[in-house]
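Entry:
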Amino acid sequence: MTSKEEELKKRKTYLQIAGTACSNCRKTSAEVGINSLLRCTRCRMSVYCSKECQKKDFSFHKQFCAAIEELHRLEEAWYSCNDKESEWSKRNIYHMQLLSEALDRELTNYERNAWLHQPKCHVCFRTSRDLQNYSPLIPCSECKVAFCCSPEHWKQYRPKHQSLCQTYQLMVNCERIRFVSDYIDSTPLSLITIRIDRYQDTSETLWAPEEWDESAIYPPLPKDWNGYFKWRKNSQFIHLDALCGVITNNLSLPLTILSALERFYIRSKLRSLEDLIIHIIGASQYEILALMTFEEIMHVLPNIKTLRIIFVGLELPMKNPGMTLQCCPRCANSDRKRICAFYPMPYHEYGSSSDYTIPHISVGFNTGLYEDDTELWKPTIEFLLEKELPCVFTSYSKEEATQDLKILKSWGAKILVGAKENKWRSTMPLIEPQGTDKFYYNNFYRTLLQGHV
């Protein structure tokens, strides 16, 4: 098994975490033709379609399984949440601390997600462990990731769930497609390569436009995603919600940048640029996994000879002052280049280094300025304001964008667009791990700023 396969193996889908899909092969009971899945007798969380799948998953599952079993024995840890979501959330955090102590290490991303997203009644917030004899929760027959503990609670919850079930189904379908695409190598020819032969009667590459904006339409961009796909000659995505969601989740990055550029620069300036420099601030795995999609900027601005993207963030693995990425054949034949650099440090430290280059725009995706890292962001924002650099910051939700905006204003930022919905946000729903029936989207809201007030 390759390292990539091992890493993917450690990731679990919402259906797997919900216990409605095999923890090893990701198939539901209906897909394998059995009445019900086998549940792990120790942790009672992981389920399997066969003993063979259970054996294959054991090496990945055994440590977390043993920690959960130990937690189950701590009766005092399973105090009642009194039908309150806030108490359920607090108990979850307490449980994760206990699990971390049992493992003698920090929880992995999978382990945190598995515990935060574990099935619970959407009315009384009880888990199967809270019920007598570990009685199973009752899943929604459509989305299979929403639960209640009894028919009575389903009757109470169903009117609310009916308005959300389609969003849950879209979330699950997007995730299915993402897992298929993760197993297939992207090529330099593709922006996003997704094969869906498991879900439709085709295995075509769904997103690899190499056409340039020959008619010089940009700026401005089309008014929405449907207009964009028509413009880029991929209108087949308009009525495919799950595929569109997966594609926009990555394309949201270059499109958010392009929409910000048209606010900061006049048309003639943008069309004449030959060397475009973009700084991605607070970069993390999300931006790195979408690396291929940034070539779309070159296709929309075909006069660019060199696109330089500088990723700066504490979550980056190692420093690399410059690496040249392959381009599509047409760009390569025209001697166009994409150069990426990576700096695992705060942005203001990069700004004081000899490697610093002045960007045409600085971007922070889903920064969460107002949360725990506010003081770490302050010197970075002060540097950006002092240099009067064009900046765009995005947020997952209106609430987060509003809080970020307050912080930016308190630091003296001159706001050009404040906490407004971003029409180039991702359309792939993500579920809030410490809430119930709450969804968010990458780059949902944006704020543009430049210099001091």
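The longest helix spans residues 241-264.
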